[in-house]
Specification:
The protein folds into 2 domains: 90 residues, Rna Polymerase Sigma Factor, Chain: A, CATH 1.10.1740; 101 residues, no CATH class. Helix 1 packs across helix 2, helix 6 crosses helix 9 and helix 7 crosses helix 9. Helix content is 74%, strand content 0%. The chain contains 11 helices and no strands.
Length: 230
């Protein structure tokens, strides 16, 4: 039981290192700290009860599954908030009713988020074709570190989440430098994998444009690489 509690505490620490920033960015409406905590607890409950939809085998697939669960929960919370707002409007005076604005996200925004997640999953899956087998887990970890930073995770949050792995006992400055190294390596690996996906015909340059901007890849690199193999 003690081992299980320690494992749960470790997982919660890791989640709080990147999940809040991801939920704030992915949610189709503004969410407060209580909403974000509810989304994290929902994810923990889903993973602890052994959801039948969770059949992922690698760490990267598990990370993508967590992102989908958080995205779906944030959308549920936003739908609930809109429903409550509508009930409040019904009860308000007519003069007040027209002035309130309900934060409704268009469906295409949800679709864009799902498509971006799908491309990020494909990018991580492409790493096995570009790196030695023994290096893939480390490169994938660097990629996730960079993606989390793009979603808003700070250096200190990532150091706290990966404290044991980084060896913070040897110095905070050194741990931060390792995070910067992870981010740089993750960006390079992600952009290389994105170019490979286009070159192999998995996606078109237009398909991956949102992911290219998200990762911060060079402007014309993906399209140029695509033309070079055609």
């Amino acid at each position: 039981m003690r081992d299980r509690n320690e494992a749960a505490a470790h997982v919660l620490t890791l989640l709080r290192g990147w999940a809040p920033a991801y939920v704030r960015r992915a949610a189709p409406c503004p969410l407060d700290e209580d909403d974000i905590e509810e989304a994290i607890q929902h994810l923990l409950a889903q993973s602890a009860t052994g959801s039948s939809r969770f059949r992922q085998r690698t760490e990267g697939e598990a990370h993508a599954w967590c992102m989908r669960v958080l995205l779906n929960k944030s959308r549920d919370l936003c739908r609930l908030r809109r429903s409550l707002d509508r009930q409040g409007e019904t009860e308000d005076a007519d003069s007040e009713r027209g002035s309130r604005q309900i934060p409704v996200a268009p469906d295409h925004e949800d679709l864009a988020v799902r498509e971006l997640i799908g491309i990020l999953e494909a990018i991580e899956g492409e790493l096995m074709y570009l790196h030695r087998e023994k290096d893939v887990p480390t490169v994938a970890r660097s990629l996730r570190c960079y993606v989390e930073s793009r979603l808003g995770a700070s250096i200190d949050e990532q150091v706290a989440a990966l404290g044991d792995e980084l060896g913070t006992s040897s110095g905070l400055v050194r741990a931060r430098n390792r995070i910067y190294q992870h981010r740089a390596r993750g960006r390079a690996a992600g952009c290389e994998a994105l170019r490979s996906l286009v070159a192999r015909g998995r996606f078109t340059a237009e398909d991956v444009e949102p992911a290219r901007r998200f990762l911060g890849c060079e402007g014309a690199t993906v399209e140029a690489d695509c033309r070079s193999v055609s």
